[in-house]
Amino acid sequence: MISIKQLAESPGLTSVPPTYTFTPNPNDHPVSDDQKDSIPVIDFARLTSGTPDQRSKLVHDLGKACQDWGFFMVINHGVPESQMKALIKACGEFFNLKEEEKQEFAGKHVLDSIRCGTSFNASVDKVLFWRDFLKVFVHPKFHSPTKPSGFREILLEYSKRTRKLALDLLEGISVSLGLEDGYMEKAMNLESGLQILAANFYPPCPEPEVAMGMPSHSDHGLLTLLIHNGISGLQVQHKGKWINVNSIPNAFVVNIGDHLEIVSNGRYKSILHRATVNEKATRISIATVYGPSLDTVVSPAPELVNLETNPPAFKGMKYGEYLEMQQSNKLDGKSCLHHVAV
To answer: Residue ranges of region Disordered (predicted)?
Structure first.
């Protein structure tokens, strides 16, 4: 399968090949340009080093952002800007490797610890997406491609820093749900939880209006932290519209995953989002998904379930089984979450 980088660099490419032509759904939501439609901003420093009152207000704001949007930006998060930029640069260098070098990391199975490829799941995608990817499992066991030079060290440091940030955010979210301290860490076995880094490469597209970087989907796992190279393209569904996410420089864009929706018994929802492409610039985004351990059965927190007034909305399923189901099929909205709905 030809990579999208190879295709985009083909001499004289002026149109999108039919296999990449994405037919828009006539019932799709409109795109909003209203500046008031911007996702909430969370000042992380107040969660970790603020006064008790500031922390309490921040936890409330965090819960509100999860409930109203399912997406938020995090500033003052403590991850050095230099580390974020170094990883984006290193991922760009990975995608610039020769095609045969990248093939060494192609992977065969959706749960392989290192896997690079194109589209989403090219073997089942009816329409191919304008995207190359690299997926790496970085926790509980750390993996890394051996190329380019220095990639491993940059990835290891970034993964450690962002892991701490994600765990602190999950603790704040857990408290906002009224769960006891440490609930998420214990119930989801986060010490051996899965952490996957997914780097996405969206090169310029000659007809961006007919191609799609990634279709409308929600993420597996509990939380996703995203950074990018300053080129916008992320859209989030909110109140019947698609919202362009214009993120603050060096902030993380964070979203709720399907498994946090399950744990919260539907109070916090994983939100549909997609990646658009443009004809001028290459967009690189790096998403890190934080999930339970693969053998954890994820079901609604018992404290959030009342058989009479708030019955369980989801049945339990092992995270590893859910992950395999989602990654093996074509990406289709929240179809996997519907599979475990009661």
So the answer is: 15-35
